[in-house]
Amino acid sequence: MKDTTTMGWATLYALVACVLATACGKISDDEESSDDGEMAEETPGFVRPPDVTGLEACEPGAPVTEPCVDDWGARLCPVDSGWPGDELALCDSGQEFGLAYHYGPKNYDDPEEIEKYMLEAGGEDENCVYVRSKNTEPVYAAGYHGRMRPGSHHLIVTVVPDPPADLILDEPVSCNQTDAVGLRWLIGSQDPQIDVSAAGSLQAAPPEPGDPDYGAATLIPANAVLRIDMHYLNPTDEDILRESWIWMERVEEEEVEVQIDMITWYQGLINVPPMSTGTTTPVSRCRVPSDRYLGLVTGHFHENGTRVTVWHEPQGEETRKVYETFNWEDPGNAAFADRIDNPSMDDLAAGEWGAETGYVHVKQGDVVSFQCEFDNPTDVTVGFGDTGSDQMCNIFGFYYPTDGDVWNCVCAGPLCL
Question: Which domains does the chain have, with CATH numbers?
Answer without folding.
Answer: 5-21+260-416 (2.60.120.230), 119-256 (2.60.120)
